[in-house]
Specification:
It is built from 16 helices and 13 strands. Helices cover about 45% and strands about 15% of the residues. The strands form 3 sheets. A 6-stranded mixed β-sheet has the order 1-11-10-9-12-13, with helices on one face. A 5-stranded mixed β-sheet has the order 4-3-2-5-8. The longest helix has about 45 residues. With about 500 residues, it is of the alpha/beta class. It starts with a helix and ends with a helix. Helix 3 crosses helix 4. It is an enzyme of class 2 (transferase). Keywords: ATP-binding, Glycolysis, Kinase, Nucleotide-binding, Transferase. It comes from Gossypium hirsutum. Belongs to the hexokinase family.
Length: about 500
């Protein structure tokens, strides 16, 4: 018996030793993979670096491109489009004005009652309508007839708390957020469709004329007083409350008319002109772009275009996170030996999901865990892995926010608002629109802190950044008011 017992003990001992060897081997393999994953993350962080000197180089490169774009058409990656808005709302505008905001699969209709000096917006109402998918690829008549019919219903619901002055034609501001070449404040030719629209017979046509014809067919007696893009609309809405600049993944600002060499018309009385920069197309050798960004650009619908937008805008941030996670899984088995199928789907990781994970404050990062499970079908992640994902989100958001701040610095420098001139009491308010700025707190705070760091404490006291909610719709109504055919009558 004793021998048997010893034999068993020895056999068991060998078995235990062998199991221990396997565990050690697995642990070594696992720790090697972890080290590799951390190397990938560290390398990505280094290549996304945005030290202050680099941000100042980006800002200076932005200014060079702004000058080139103002000098000639096609002279720069920045289009620096002349908006034909040569004066912004003053706050003295009075009366009832409408706006139509078309920028995607929905459109908004607004009516705004302005009370004149010191009273501002007295009353406002809006309605949002979905566009049937069939109309996004049909004919221009079908699309604009549908919009005009909805507008006719909206006008018919005008209540007694909105007062139209007797004998006056109603006036409307039209926000049209597609690429347009404007030729006046109330005319512009569609260059191309984006955002899922494809109506061939509309390209090359004047969008204001098409809307006006549809309104006439619906029996609406209304003059289209201003055509604006959404960023210019945000700027106008902001200026009404003393703001001077609007930005999302685009920016608009007020330029001195004599500083626009490509402007060949009479100089406007105001001496100013709103410029729609189309800044998403900015690019510079100073932008920190790791391989993931180049791959995203190559595989995009517009390779080589909108480079700046692809590192700062909400549409792309989550996708960059996904691409890094993919590489960490392919090369370091971060989520196991095979890449989870959902992780291979482009744009599955939207920026709202990234934002929720980045801002997860629960001790065990349960928001990260639930998003991985629900969106990517990845379960059983460790707290250590979830912390890495939060860090990855932070790297991508920080780079985007800091580069946005560098772009703002470029505009402020071009306007001479980056310094305080002796004895001058200036105030600069930056109007920001869009979900990224509104909902992604970490992004917003990083952008604001970086801008303060770039301009210094003294100048930062003269600058306010404010969220301009629905700026483009309200702005269009205000631009209709400031370009009203009855303006001189009101001011006389």
């Amino acid at each position: 018996m004793g021998k048997v017992a010893i034999g068993v003990a020895v056999v068991c001992g060998i078995a235990v030793a062998a199991a221990a060897a396997v565990v050690v081997h697995r642990k070594t393999k696992k720790s090697g993979r972890w080290v590799k994953a951390m190397e990938i993350l560290k390398e990505f962080e280094e290549k996304c670096g945005t030290p202050i000197p680099k941000l100042k180089q980006v800002a200076d490169a932005m200014i060079v491109e702004m000058h080139a774009g103002l000098a000639s058409e096609g002279g720069s990656k920045l289009k620096m489009l002349i908006s034909y808005v040569d004066h912004l709302p003053t706050g003295r505008e009075k009366g009832l004005f409408y706006a139509l905001d078309l920028g995607g699969t929905n459109f908004r209709m607004l009516r705004v009652q302005l009370g004149g000096k010191g009273r501002g917006i007295v009353n406002q109402q809006f309605e949002e309508v979905s566009i049937p998918p069939s109309l996004m690829t049909g004919s221009s008549d079908a699309l604009f007839d549908y919009i005009a019919a909805e507008l006719a219903k909206f006008v018919a619901q005008e209540g007694s708390d909105f007062k139209q002055s007797p004998g006056r034609q109603r006036e409307l501001g039209f926000t049209f957020s597609f690429p347009v070449m404007q030729s006046s404040i109330a005319s512009g030719t569609l260059l191309r469709w984006t955002k899922g629209f494809s109506i061939d017979d509309m390209v090359g046509q004047d969008v204001v004329a098409e809307l006006a014809k549809a309104m006439e067919r619906q029996g609406i007696d209304m003059r289209i007083a201003a055509l604006v893009n959404d960023t210019v609309g945000t700027l106008a809405g902001g200026r009404y409350n003393n703001k001077i600049l609007g930005t999302g993944s685009n920016a608009a600002y007020v330029e001195r008319a004599h500083a626009i060499p490509k402007w060949h018309g009479l100089l406007p009385k105001s001496g100013e002109m709103v410029i729609n920069m189309e800044w998403g197309n900015f690019r510079s050798s100073h932008l920190p772009l790791p391989d993931y960004d180049h791959a995203l650009d190559t595989e995009s619908l517009n390779p080589g275009e909108q480079i700046y937008e692809k590192v700062i805008a909400g549409m792309y941030l989550g996708e960059i996170v996904r691409r890094v996670l993919c590489r960490m899984t392919e090369e370091a088995a971060f989520f196991g030996d095979t890449v989870p199928p959902k992780l291979k789907e482009p744009f599955i990781l939207g920026t709202p999901i990234m934002s929720a994970m980045h801002q997860d404050t629960s001790p065990d990062l349960k928001v990260v865990a639930s998003n991985l499970k629900d969106i990517l079908e990845i379960s059983n992640t460790s707290l250590k892995m979830r912390k890495v994902i939060v860090e990855l989100c932070n790297i991508v958001a920080t780079r985007g926010a800091r580069l946005s701040a560098a772009g703002l610095l470029g505009i402020l420098k071009k306007m001479g608002r980056d310094t305080i001139k002796g004895g001058e009491k200036q105030k600069t308010v930056i109007a920001m629109d869009g979900g990224l700025y509104e909902h992604y707190t970490e992004y917003r705070e990083c952008l604001e802190n970086t801008l303060n760091e770039l301009i210094g404490e003294e100048v930062s006291r003269t600058i306010e950044i404010e969220h301009s909610n629905d700026g483009s719709g309200i702005g269009a109504a205000l631009l209709a008011a400031s370009h009203s055919q009855y303006l001189e009558m009101d001011e006389s």
